[in-house]
Structure formats: structure tokens, C-alpha cells
Design brief:
The protein is built from eleven helices and 21 strands. The chain is α/β, with parallel strands linked by helices and 455 residues long. The strands form four sheets. The chain has a nine-stranded mixed sheet, sandwiched between helices. The chain has a seven-stranded mixed sheet with strand order 15-16-14-13-17-20-21. A hairpin with a 6-residue loop joins β9 and β10. α8 packs across α9 and α9 crosses α11. It is globular. 40% of the residues are buried.
Length: 455
């Protein structure tokens, strides 16, 4: 019999090395290599992951079984991020900070599916059945077809899936699942990779949607090998600011829908509740008559969201002025401040500048550039902007205002919420269908936009 082989795996990216290394050569992280023992196995025939051999078929010969067969969770914000529901056989990986509400959201989603007279299975490797029962009672969940399983051994989980034949399975979490065929500890790279691969294979073969909950590292990425995100069909991140009741689920990867879609939820005593109009939510506490406050439009996937952007400019008391940004890219802010100084003639070299996106939302798109610039100008000059005005546009280094994508969708959302004016790139004005409730101001240069807001 061949001897057991000892190798070292990077817990961050899954890189393999024959000896311990202080720094991973692939991902550059320090002290991430862990020793694991690989037991040799005799390979006779096909492994459970490979399954039966398939043959090439012409694309027209393959039957289309996905059209119109998405499984709805009856939670509209969740279905939106999934692309209209979960596809049979698809695997969805959900990550997020501890206590953010991942287990609560998935338990509520399974309950809604069970109410459609369909069997569902919730597998927990971290909580007992009694603990999950206490949570379900708090959430008001009473369903005869919702099965709870507390198990961490992969072979037992697969046997129960085969016996129950559910229409949807949740595994919480993938880091706790292990297979007895490997000698390494649960949570190791080899265990996560092997367990996930076998779960995905069996659920795809049976056309059962699979939700995997993943732990996250200190920097917010899903723990375990990076290949885990490549194996699944959809990757979602559940986000939320500390102390805030609002949660955002964001699609990072989706093979069956658009990426970067978001769903907004509110955490209450009775569980996670969806927010159907996030624009109205983010603007509900907007101050009236305050300088440095402007409304901008962010496009998250196919959904336009209006948010309040706040700027505070004050004289610095140090030799080097401070620049701070919450919710937007700091490097983008520094670039815009340089444009305002050079092209707009604004003395910002002796001013501290702070930017914040209200509501805890993080936005990274160039359509916010003009809103940031006008908010800084408003705070510096101590004059408030029109509360019924929305701003959108990208700012170039020459001070030019560049067109943004899907301006008509953003403008329609602003008109729906009662806004009366909109400052936008001149090139986008021709794309907007006539809306008598909204007055458009097309600008080509940053100086034109500054003239429009000055009293």
C-alpha cells in the first residue's frame, strides 16, 4: 500500500506546496499554509464526482428544461438578485459577516417554498434541531414540509437528500461539512473543495437547487479556496453596517441573471423583511436646507436607486488637509478635488473634505462624479442645493461632463419620486423621453454645472 502523503495548503487561495511557506506565492498572504494529510485511494472506475461519461450533442438536440421553471422564494428582493428565482440544479453561495442574517433569510426562503406544498431541507452543521426550532418559532414559521437536519458528514447528508427528495436544499455552512474519505480536518481546503464538489454534482444530477452558506475572512471574502466561487453558479454577499437595521444582498456572480443586482432588507424582531422601495428609504431622513447635500442616482444591476450624498468642507488645522470618504472610492474623491481646484477654480488646498453616502450604501460607479463635485461646492460656499434636484454625470480630468449609461431609467425613477429638476450630461439629454414633470439641465463642463447651483 502506498504511504500517506503530507502536503501544505494555503487556507486563503488553496495553493498547494510540498513544505511549509511563510508567504503564499500565489495570493501573497502570510502564515496561511496548514499541513494536511492525503490518504491514497484506489481508483476503480469513475469517482462519484465524475459520474457517467457524456457524449457531445448538437446544441439544437439538447432539450431546454430551464425555460419558465425557476423556483420562486416568494421574497421579491431575493428573487430579483437571483434573476427571477433560482434555477433547478443551480448552486448559490451566500457569504456575509457573522450574525448578519444569512441563516434567517434562507430559513424564511425555505418556509415560503414549503408553503407551496413542496418539500425543502435545511441542513445545519452549526446548530442543533432544537436551536433552529426556537428561531423558527420566533420567525412565525410553521410548515409540515420543512425538514431540519443537524449533520456534518457529507455521506449522511447525501443519503438524507436522496430519501427526502426535496425541491431545494440549504447547507449551513459548507465549512462544517466533511467527508470520511479524507483524513484532513473539517474546514480545510481539501475538505471544502471535495464536499462542495460532491454536493454540487448530486444536486445538479437531481435538478435540486442548492444554497451554500460560506464563512468570510477578515477582509470580507468567502473563506476557503477561491475555486469554490468558480464551482458555483451564483455568488451573493449579505452586507450591512454595524448598528444599522438595513441589509443589502448583492450579486457578485450569476450565470442565470445579471450581476451586481442588489436587494434591500430590514432586520426586525420577526426576521428579515424586504424593502420594496429603497430609494424612498434612503431619502426619508434627508435634511432640508442643508448645504453639501445632493441626491444622486446609482444603477445597481438593472435597478436605479436614488441616494443622498453628503459633503462637509471645513478649514484644516494641520499642514496637510484631510480627505475621507465613506461609501465611495477615496481615490476617485481625490481626483475630483483636483479637477475642482484646477478647472473649477475652487481653493480646496487648505480645506478638509469629508464625503458620506447616507444609509450605509457603498457605490462604485462614475455617474456619482458630478454629484460629489456639486456637494463639495455647496458645502464650501455654504449654500444649499435645490431639494427637488437630482444630479448625475461622469467628470473627466479636463472638467468635461461625460455621458452615463441608462440615463433614461435613472431620470424616470427620479420623476416617480417627485423630483422636479435634473442636472445631467448634455449628451444624455437626447436619450430622455419627454417628461413634463422633470426639467432637464444638460451641461458639458464642470463650470457650467457650478454656475447652475450658485445663488
Amino acid at each position: 500500500m502506498p504511504k500517506a502523503k503530507t502536503v501544505f495548503f494555503c487556507q486563503n487561495c488553496g495553493s498547494q506546496a510540498p513544505k511549509w511557506l511563510g508567504r503564499c506565492p500565489d495570493c501573497g498572504q502570510y502564515n496561511t499554509f496548514v499541513e494536511e494529510k492525503l490518504e491514497p485511494q484506489a481508483r476503480s472506475g469513475l469517482s462519484p464526482i465524475e459520474g457517467p461519461r457524456s457524449i457531445p450533442r448538437r446544441v439544437e438536440e439538447i432539450e431546454d428544461v430551464w425555460e419558465g421553471t425557476r423556483l420562486s422564494t416568494a421574497i421579491r428582493e431575493f428573487d430579483r438578485v437571483l434573476g427571477g428565482g433560482v434555477v433547478p440544479g443551480a448552486t448559490v453561495l451566500i457569504g456575509g459577516d457573522p450574525g448578519i442574517g444569512k441563516s434567517t433569510l434562507l430559513l424564511q426562503a425555505l418556509y415560503q417554498i414549503a408553503r407551496q406544498n413542496k418539500k425543502v431541507l435545511y441542513v445545519s452543521g452549526e446548530e442543533s434541531q432544537h436551536q433552529i426550532k426556537l428561531r423558527s418559532r420566533r420567525l412565525g414559521i410553521h410548515a409540515d414540509l420543512l425538514y431540519i437536519l443537524s449533520e456534518t458528514e457529507l455521506e449522511q447528508i447525501l443519503n438524507h437528500i436522496k430519501q427526502i427528495s426535496p425541491v431545494c436544499v440549504v447547507v449551513d455552512s459548507i465549512q462544517t461539512v466533511f467527508t470520511s474519505q479524507l483524513a484532513s480536518a473539517p474546514g480545510s481546503v481539501s475538505q471544502i473543495r471535495e464536499s462542495a464538489a460532491r454536493l454540487i454534482y448530486h444536486t445538479k444530477k437531481a435538478h435540486i437547487p442548492l444554497f451554500l452558506v460560506g464563512h468570510v475572512t477578515k477582509d470580507g471574502t468567502i473563506a476557503g479556496p477561491r475555486v469554490l466561487e468558480h464551482m458555483v453558479d451564483t455568488v451573493l454577499y449579505f452586507e450591512g453596517e454595524a448598528g444599522s437595521p438595513y441589509r443589502i444582498i448583492r450579486g457578485i456572480k450569476n450565470r442565470f441573471g445579471s450581476t451586481h443586482e442588489i436587494g434591500v432588507f430590514e432586520m426586525r424582531e420577526g426576521g428579515v423583511h424586504e424593502v420594496l422601495n429603497p430609494s424612498e428609504l434612503f431619502l426619508s431622513e434627508r435634511p432640508k436646507g442643508a448645504s453639501g447635500s445632493v441626491v444622486v442616482s446609482s444603477l445597481e444591476g438593472s435597478r436605479p436607486i436614488l441616494v443622498e450624498l453628503q459633503a462637509l468642507v471645513s478649514p484644516t488645522h494641520f499642514g496637510l488637509p484631510r480627505r475621507m470618504a465613506v461609501g465611495v472610492d477615496l481615490n476617485r474623491l481625490l481626483l475630483l478635488l483636483a479637477v475642482l481646484e484646477k478647472r473649477g477654480g475652487m481653493p480646496l488646498g487648505s480645506q478638509d473634505v469629508y464625503i458620506n453616502v447616507a444609509g450605509g450604501l457603498r457605490i462604485n460607479e462614475p455617474a456619482l462624479d458630478l454629484g460629489i463635485a456639486l456637494a463639495v461646492a455647496s458645502s464650501l460656499g455654504e449654500y444649499p442645493l435645490d431639494p427637488d434636484m437630482m444630479v448625475l454625470g461622469e467628470v473627466g480630468l479636463s472638467g468635461e461632463i461625460r455621458a452615463v449609461a441608462q440615463a433614461d431609467v435613472r431620470v424616470r425613477e427620479a420623476s416617480k419620486l417627485g423630483f422636479k429638476k435634473c442636472i445631467l450630461p448634455a449628451k444624455n439629454t437626447g436619450e430622455i423621453n419627454g417628461d413634463g414633470n422633470l426639467e432637464l439641465f444638460g451641461v458639458r463642463h464642470i463650470q457650467e454645472a457650478l454656475k447652475l447651483i450658485r445663488p
